[in-house]
Each structure stands twice: as C-alpha cells, then as structure tokens.
Amino acid sequence: MAKKGNSHSWNPTNSTRHHTTDAPTTGPKRDPNLGTYDTTNGQETAVLVAVPDKRQPELQTREYLDELEFLAETAGAQVTKRFIQRLDKPDTRTFVGEGKLAEIKAYVNHSRTSMVIFDDELSPSQLRNLEAELKVKIVDRSLLIIDIFARRAKSATARTQVELAQYQYLLPRLTGLWSHLDKQRGGGVSQRGPGETEIETDRRVVRERIDFLKEKLKDFDRQSHTQRKSRGGVIRVALVGYTNVGKSTIMNLLSRSDVFAENKLFATVDSTVRKVVLDNTPFLLSDTVGFIRKLPTRLIESFKSTLDEIREADLLVHVVDISHQSFEEQIAVVNDTLKDIEAADKPMLLVFNKIDQYELDSTALKKDEFEGMNPDEDETPRPTLAQLQATYMAKMHDPVIFISAQERQNIDELRALLTRHVTALHRQRYPNQVGEAYDE
C-alpha cells in the first residue's frame, strides 16, 4: 500500500510479520532492502471482516462495512469480498470463530487475496494468531486509518503527529522478527546497528523514537501557540464534521482558496487557516481534520496541536452530509469527539451539505453482496428534505442551514448567516474595538 521511496507514507501495514511461502498473493512485492512494498506490480486486494453484535441492525452493519471499504479504497486496496459473523463478543484468540476463520482462509487461498482487514482493533495476540493462520497481511481498522493519515499528511507537524501514532500502535505489537527496522526509510526512521533484532532492543528503539517525536511535537505546539496568539483581535471560525462531508469545498467557496478537496476519506489532515472577509467583516476560517467512527485514540492524542484550532475557535461550523443514510449517527460521533477534546460548549452553526445528492429511497442490499447478511424486512422510508428542514429548524437552538457546496446552492445564505454571527461575536469578545468593518 505504500509506494517505495515515498517519505510521507511510512506504512505500518508493511511492518508486521508476513508468511508468503504457502499463499502467494497478487499484491505488491516486498523489497528486503527497504522493508517496504513496491505497488507498481499491481493493486493490493483485500477482504473485509466484521463481527457485529447480534442486536445490530442489518442496514447499519452494511453501512459500517461500506465505510470500511471506502477506507480501504482510499488506502489503495481493492475489496473483493466481505465476511460477517454475529457474535455476543469477538473470539479472544482469532476475533472470529473457528468455522468463519476456515471460510476466510479458503477464500484467501483461492483468490490469492493479499490482505484481510478487520473493522475493529485487534489485540497483539489476535494479530499474531491471524497472521499465522491466514499467512497474509492482517490490518485492523486503527492501522488502516493511521495509514491513510500518513498518506495525507503534508506538513512537518502532521507527518510527525502521524509517525508518533504509528509507533504507539506498533510498540505492543512488536515481534522478534524485525530485521527491517534498521532499513526502513522515510518517515518513521529508527537508526540502529545491523543484527539487533531482539524484541527488547526493538522496544527500546521504538520507545526512544516515541520520546523524540513527543519532544518534537512540543516544539511545534509552542510555535503554533505563538502563531495563534498573534491572531488576537480577530474572530476565529473552525469547520468541523465527519470525514468527507465537504468541509474543504466550503472552505474554498468562502475563502476563494484552493484547499485540496477530493471525494475520499481524510482528504484534509493538515489544518489550513485562511482570512475571510464577508461584507467587510473579517475573520479567520480553519479547515480541520475530519472525524470518523472509532477514530484511534492515538491519533486524537498525536493531533493535539492540530485540534487546538478547534479548541480555541470562537465559532464552530458543523458540516453534515445530509445525503448519508446515517447522518444523525455521524452528528453524534462528531459531538462525542468534540466532548473528548473539550470543545463541545462552543457556539455552533449546523450546516447540512449535499442537499443535491439527497435521495428518498434507501439503497436495497445487493444479492450476494457479502456473507452473513439479509435485507431488513421493514426498512423505514426516509423523510423528504422539506420534512428534515422543518424538523431540524424546529428542534435545534443553534442556527441550521441546508446547502450544496458542490452546486453552490444557498451559499449566499450561508455567507449572510456567518457574517451575522461573526459580527455579534466580535462585538461581544472585543467591545472596545471600534471600526467601520463592524458598523451597521
């Protein structure tokens, strides 16, 4: 999944033990000199595995796996099969039961799949047991998200934050077969002498690297704090929301900038700040990293300085993808994450985006889409867009607006709403500042 020689894509999925003699794959070939994979030989293929609670609705299970597949595609893998096993709790040894594991193994061997992706975080022992049994690369949800962050990170701060998360994930999963650690290049380099492959040596090297990265992030944090202090006297607005809801597109519309925007998860990892002036009302607008269900705690901890843009904002603009079947659950995920970073009490505008993509009918399950699923017998029809507008405008205390950033629908209304709230906040926060920009 990582391109050879890419200094920004130190891929931890390449850092686990691999057994390739029994099950050849169609995926990339490993370069023993670099400890990385050359993806020019072909796209990696993957199967998805989920172990939902028996009470979880079928439609929700499908949506979760749709998101996992989107993550896999964003990371560069092609999904060929999905496996579901409903259990009261995952198996402590191999996460799935013995019978389901045999099914997965048979498919992997037959199709020459190069990796298996699990929609939960695996324990170190589960990871080792699955690798030993399936003899292909095993990736859990946390590692997949961290890998995507590594691909997306551009600034020195973001690359350091991701590298720290990688090593923190890696530390409890070290084995004694790590001859590649002294050969890994690019982000995530740890220098040590040849032949030092004992697990305690590996742990020492990784711990030293973690300590170094933490100190490096403290320096970045001090620099960022100084930059934020210099912005005093100007209202700060932060775009927040679930990943891939259109924050960067809105940022470009409001600031007339060219922030990278793509229909992929975590298109934005680095925070971007732009000065915006609407009707002679200036403010600073920041585009922040998107949140996601089961966002690894390590990433939240590592991205502290980036998330400070949210913590220190005067106003949050919560962008929601109204076209998504589970947009209300995504709202809850974002609100919970804001609580985790102590930013849930800030003034907030709720912006429902992608109204042009809203569809009344829920998508029916495709026949044989994946193992272990049956369509729900009674799927509740979706309300109309007008009904949703009336409902949310009635029940929300904070302002609500419905737009399409892609089609530029209701963007003028969004600009007017932002202008009113930024002006009011400025007069409240900086009552002694008098200027024509804020005169009525």
TrEMBL record:
Residues 235-426 form the Hflx-type G domain. It comes from the Bacteria. The keyword Amino-acid biosynthesis does not apply. InterPro entries: G_HFLX_dom (IPR030394), GTP-bd (IPR006073), GTP-bd_M (IPR032305), GTPase_HflX (IPR016496), GTPase_HflX_N (IPR025121), GTPase_HflX_N_sf (IPR042108), P-loop_NTPase (IPR027417), Small_GTP-bd (IPR005225). Residues 1-41 are annotated as: Disordered. Keywords: Cytoplasm, GTP-binding, Magnesium, Metal-binding, Nucleotide-binding. Pfam families: GTP-bdg_M, GTP-bdg_N, MMR_HSR1. It is found in: Cytoplasm. GTPase that associates with the 50S ribosomal subunit and may have a role during protein synthesis or ribosome biogenesis. PANTHER family: GTP-BINDING PROTEIN 6-RELATED, GTP-BINDING PROTEIN HFLX. Belongs to the TRAFAC class OBG-HflX-like GTPase superfamily. HflX GTPase family. Monomer. Associates with the 50S ribosomal subunit. NCBIfam families: GTP_HflX, small_GTP. This is GTPase HflX. The gene is hflX.
